[in-house]
Amino acid sequence: MSALVIILIILLGLFLLILEFFVFPGVTFAGIGGFIFTAGGIFLAYQGYGNTYGNIALVSTLFAGIIILVLSFRSKTWNRLMLHSQVDGKVETVGEDTIHAGDEGVTITRLNPIGKVMINGEVLEGRCPGHFIDENSPVTVKEVFKTYIIVKPKNT
Fold first, then answer.
1. Which of 16, 40, 104, 130 has its CA 20 to 30 A from that of 26?
2. DSSP labels for the chain?
């Protein structure tokens, strides 16, 4: 087998390994194929040209792989592929001093069985187990928890 074909097989293997590191997360066909092509190219160098050229192929492949990884890290490739989002949400807590059992309010969204209710001017997450309540319906607070309230329809 010609040296050019062996070099191309090794380069294809390195390219697939780089794709595995930077594009496809986890162990995919690119990683497995990259390993097989790289190892196969080195094996063909040993088989076709002997130990001296096989050792040269092995060392140069390892050196080229390290150089490619270093250059990839320095070129901020990770930053271009990384998801840049922040979670700015916060958990709304129920004011224990403003909402009490027995308070009355109105639903803002349909409670199916969870939705939004307005009690004492505050918009909160309301839950109504066992019932579906349409929006703009009067409700009464049954229980108050730290992050939500249990309500029931006002007429029951």
1. 40
2. --HHHHHHHHHHHHHHHHHHHHTS-SS-HHHHHHHHHHHHHHHHHHHHHHHHHHHHHHHHHHHHHHHHHHHHHHTTHHHHHS-------------TTT--TT-EEEESS-BSSEEEEEETTEEEEEE-TT--B-TT-EEEEEEE-SS-EEEEETT-
